[in-house]
Amino acid sequence: MDVIEKNKLRMNQLSASAPKLAKQIEVLDWDELTVALNECIFQPNQSVLPKEYGPASYLPLEAENEEQKEHYVRAFAHGESLIRDGKTAAFTVAGGQGTRLGYNGPKGTLPVSPIKGKTLFQLFAEQILGISRKYEVVIPWYVMCSPLNLGATLAHFEKMDFYGLDRGNIKFFAQGVMPATDFEGNLLLADSDSLALSPDGHGGSLKALIDSGSISDMAKRGIEHVSYFQVDNPLVSTINPLFLGLHDLQNSDMSSRSLTKTGPFEKLGNFVSIGERITIIEYSDLPEEKALEKEEDGRIRYRAGSPAIHILRRDFIEKFASGKIKLPYHRAEKKVAHLNEAGEIITPKIPNAVKFETFVFDALPFARNPLILEADRLEEFSPVKNMTGIDSLESSQADMVERAKRWLTNNGIKICESAKIEISSVSFPAENDLVNVKGERIDLSGDFIYLE
Ligand code: UTP
């Protein structure tokens, strides 16, 4: 008997006296589980690498010649007009479990800003509010949660009065889940009345946008572009006019920001090209000899890494509705607490289970005219994955302060080197919004400077 049949039989027996489990089994998509098991457990040796590929080319953040400069100026203005004309939505993926952070609550509700302790969600909300006011337009915000954190996320927003945004313009919805299995493909139970379920990866966002009605809501509102960002990057430019303008002028289905890797083995996905198409090869899959390849000028060839910031055309996302194009499953080996045969809950110390996840960047190879625009890491990327150390709350707060200092200094406002600084995105969603702010407006006397 194959594993699926075995699982069906076992679950039918177990669910006879377990009503919640019975419901879960009733709606479980066995065909989908079969695909996931095949891709991640039974035929895992299929190469994840394309046959032939090279480093993807990207647009530099600073234009390199006059022609490019003019193009960027045009693109920025075009991006601004797309925003002003209400063609753009903000989209946050916040369905992850944030296990590395170890915070008791949805990650977006973590206080992160260095002085006011604003949450990640508040920082995005204020930026969206700031941009909406600047361009006198409604920017709808779509927030993807998971069934595990949707209730807590909603309750948080209600308590915070939606951070000043109009409730009608924020849509919360849950992504799909997949059951976890052991390494042989046997379904795991979280308790006697439930499967061990986990969110199906950020790639699940495309289906979830469709299934939740978000895409049709966007269509009704005239939204053409979806600005995608992760919940854990407080520096992200939620709606970026230059990026948006370049993306639309190139008629790109899906565009991405890139970071110049700090070294050949930095743990970022690598943008690579396969002919006209682009894909991402994870850092763990890029062969060492490729990672070490160099240009004549000494820079590594595979230097464009992904900070997971994208713009997707709404009609490109709609193509995933039919189910004809599917994202592959990735195997994530995790520690999953589960009920054993003896009816005891086992909390493993080492990974014991496979979670099945899809990744949004796997949509890239399906995109026509994909575009990559370089980003300045110091300006736009400092994820909060851990509490301390690399990519942590600590490092991200330090980066927020440094960026605020830079913004003020670049605008001719002198500040004390040791001061902690925070700038509100409601009034200043971008650096150039500080252009007319004079030093007198800011009280520079204290150790803490908050620019409202
Ligand atoms: P990560 O890959 O960092 O995962 O997610 P995570 O669950 O947040 O954290 P760890 O790995 O358990 O510590 C990157 C982004 O993708 C979202 C997360 O919320 C985060 O914004 N995500 C991830 C989803 O929305 N759904 C998922 O199923 C997985």
Task: Provide structural commentary.
The protein has 452 residues and is an alpha/beta fold. It has two domains: 3-384, Alpha-Beta Complex (Spore Coat Polysaccharide Biosynthesis Protein SpsA, Chain A), CATH 3.90.550.10; 386-452. It is built from 13 helices and 21 strands. The chain has helices at residues 3-15, 19-27, 30-42, 66-84, 120-135, 150-159, 204-211, 214-221, 241-249, 288-292, 314-318, 377-380, 393-410, and strands at 54-55, 88-93, 141-145, 170-174, 177-179, 189-191, 194-195, 197-199, 225-230, 254-260, 269-274, 277-281, 304-306, 310-313, 330-334, 338-339, 345-346, 353-357, 371-374, 420-423, 448-451. A hairpin with a 2-residue loop joins strand 6 (189-191) and strand 7 (194-195). Helix 1 (3-15) runs antiparallel to helix 2 (19-27). The chain is globular and about 75 Å long. The relative contact order is 0.15. Bound molecules: uridine 5'-triphosphate. Residues 93-101, 107, 144, 175, 199-202, 204, 230-232, 357, 385 line the site of uridine 5'-triphosphate.
Summarize this, please?
The protein is α/β, with parallel strands linked by helices and 452 residues long.
For the record, the CATH class of the largest domain is Alpha Beta
Number of helices: 13
Question: Main beta sheet, described?
Answer: 11 strands, mixed
User: What's the number of extended β-strand segments?
Assistant: 21
Shape-level CATH architecture of the largest domain: Alpha-Beta Complex
Percentage of helical residues? Answer: 25-40%
Main structural class: alpha/beta
Measured between the Cα atoms of the first and last residue, the distance is 66 Å
Ions, cofactors, ligands: which are bound? Answer: uridine 5'-triphosphate
How much of the sequence is in beta strands?
A: 15-25%
CATH topology-level fold name of the largest domain? Spore Coat Polysaccharide Biosynthesis Protein SpsA, Chain A
Low-confidence stretches: none
- The CATH superfamily name of the largest domain is Spore Coat Polysaccharide Biosynthesis Protein SpsA, Chain A
Mean pLDDT: 95
